[in-house]
Amino acid sequence: MKTINIFCFGFGQVAKSFIRKLSLENININLSATSREKSQKKKIDTLSYDSFQFDENTYDQKLINKLTDAKHILVSIAPIDGQDIVLKKFQKNFCQGKYKWVTYLSATSVYGDHKGEWVDEKSATMPTSENGVNRLSVEKSWMNTATKNNLPFQIFRLSGIYSNKKNILVRLKTGEEKIINKENHFFSRIHVEDIANTLFRSINNFKAKEIYNISDDKPCSSFEVASYAAKLLDIKKLETIDLSTIKNQMLKNFYKDSKKVSNQKMKKFFNYELKYPTYVEGLNYIRDNFI
After folding, report:
1. How far is CA 56 from CA 132, 142, 281, in A?
2. Residues 240 and 204 sit within 8 Å (Cβ to Cβ)
3. What torsion, rounded to 10 degrees, do the Cα atoms 248, 253, 256, 261 define?
4. Is the four-CA dihedral 57, 61, 63, 67 of positive or negative sign?
5. 194 lies in a domain?
6. DSSP state of 42
């Protein structure tokens, strides 16, 4: 049985889904991860792992040995105050370590607004939001570090993530979804399992210093997705609100950008067919199995 010694900076839904994918493939996993909580032994399903405290102010010194021993590194911590705290604290380790696979999870917000047109990995990056600006800055910092130190490093730019637990069906049922019908607004999404599957494929099919868009096959408006979700839940009429009434800055930023994110490079390089190629397959599966 193959063994993977992996260190996850951040252990949210993508990292957990990736670890579960490795388990499904009968891989022996030696896992360490970070959390804002105090260091402790934890479990994901039946797998025990070390969770080390790490935030912008402090970290458990004991994680250094685990980081040094690891061969695979997944970084999913978002920028804090415009910086990547992983590079800020541990850049020296990445200059010295003997890693096989280092992946940074970024976001398609780095592209900014392309007026509803298609973007691929060669498209201009002109972020309009603070999050997008910070993501792009961190990408460049990581790529510079990787180039200088010959790191086996790649970037995954993730579209809007949904999962079996966190999705528009749940938000509609709980009344949390703010539905805005903005004309000619396109965005892309991706089910967390498809991210995990692509991460898994990249372990044995890797090319250093590459960037991949991780998205599904059908960019569309949020209203189109909401309308289909409402149909699945037998909601007869969707109540919409005006964008000008929204106070949440992150949501406002979301509606600034309109683009269709191409996934052709991802699908071709990793020879991967999406499990949920559009929101239709994804939401149908969630409705039938979790709602």
Report:
1. 20, 17, 39
2. no
3. -130
4. positive
5. yes
6. E
As a whole number of angstroms, the distance between CA 263 and CA 246 comes to 31
| Under 8 Å between Cβ of 151 and 104 | no
- The string of pLDDT tens digits covering residues 113-166 is 999 999 999 999 999 999 999 999 999 999 999 999 999 999 999 999 999 999
Work out how many domains the chain is built from and give that number.
1
In a domain, 100, yes or no: yes
User: What is the b/e burial string over 145-178, where b = at least 16 CB atoms within 10 angstroms of the residue's CB?
Assistant: bbeeeebbbbbbbbbbbbbbeebbbbbbeeeebb
Write down the residue that tokens 């069906």 correspond to: 169
In DSSP terms, 80 is beta-bridged to 83
Task: Give the residue among 211, 218, 195 at the shortest CA–CA distance from 272.
Answer: 195
Is the CA virtual torsion 235, 255, 274, 286 positive or negative? negative
Segments of the chain with pLDDT less than 70 = 1
Note whether residue 152 is domain-resident. Answer: yes
Q: Are strands 40-44 and 47-53 parallel, antiparallel or unpaired?
A: antiparallel
Distance, in Å, from the CA atom of 175 to the CA atom of 235, rounded to the nearest integer, reads: 12
Containing domain of residue 77, as a range?
Answer: 3-163+190-215+262-274
CATH number at residue 17: 3.40.50.720
Q: Check: CB of residue 252 under 8 Å from CB of residue 187.
A: no
Provide CB contacts within 8 A for 230, sequence distance 6+.
172, 236, 238
- The two three-digit tokens of residue 120, written as one number: 């691929």
- Within a domain: residue 69? yes
